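Example record

Each entry pairs one chain with its bound ligand, magnesium ion.
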Amino acid sequence: MTDTTVREPLLEASGIVKNFGHVRAVRGADFTVYPGEIVSLIGDNGAGKSTLVKMLSGAIRPDEGTIVFDGARVSFGNPQDARRYGIETVYQDLALAQDLDPAANLYLGRELLRGGLLGALGFLDRRRMLDTAEREMSDLGVKLKDITAPVAELSGGQKQSVAVARAAMWAKRIIFMDEPTAALGVVQTKQVLELIRRVRDAGIAVVLISHNMPQVLEVSDRVEVLRLGQRVARFEASEATVEDLVASMTSGEKEGKQR
Ligand SMILES: Nc1ncnc2c1ncn2[C@@H]1O[C@H](COP(=O)(O)OP(=O)(O)OP(=O)(O)O)[C@@H](O)[C@H]1O
Ligand SMILES: [Mg+2]
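Structure tokens for the complex follow.
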């Protein structure tokens, strides 16, 4: 990546706090996303990664803290609010409708209606959704034998690809991905990582949560480290080693190779 110090962040979260009862899940975390980058958010189990991402994508509300997007302070009451800013999320459990086919899943909650009288009566424009879904997935390099088969019949990797394609189809600015390759084999993982690169190359920033450190270094431009609900280090991926990342996740070392 080019020198990130002169770039304006696309998203800047500061002092984010989230408590669940007595559990202090996120304790004043900061997080930064620059335009068009792949940034990994790493940290040990329970560090607060998923909780932080849920707050940045509108799924839950922070107790404290500020989120600045494109230079203006924002507050997301729900995922639809975040979507209006071009922010999409691939959650750990994917949230696909298993009995629907990939095209229907790509348009889930945003179905196209046919125009004219029929549209007014609420008929779905199935043909147009199928065509666009097929084009979108082929643009992203997602290959499915039968695009009309229910998602339940797809492999884990294919499901993951559909979830990523759906996010990529609607995202304009940022996609958050919570452990998108955790359940995948070597080949499928490669495909999903390739998909992530294509999304980034199309100008959309990707925030990747992963426990796979070699993968993090391979695919990311930058890495931010969360420990006990706070950011403890940031790295340029090209300047960091797996040992650097592991040390910062576990030792509470306050400075990584800071920019
Ligand atoms: N809905 C909830 N209710 C109560 N506690 C929660 C809830 N969600 C998360 N927590 C707690 O908040 C802390 C942070 O959890 P979170 O899921 O954000 O961690 P994580 O970094 O994503 O971990 P992992 O790598 O295991 O996915 C944990 O102690 C967890 O038990
Ligand atoms: Mg998590």
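DSSP finds nine helices and ten strands in the chain.
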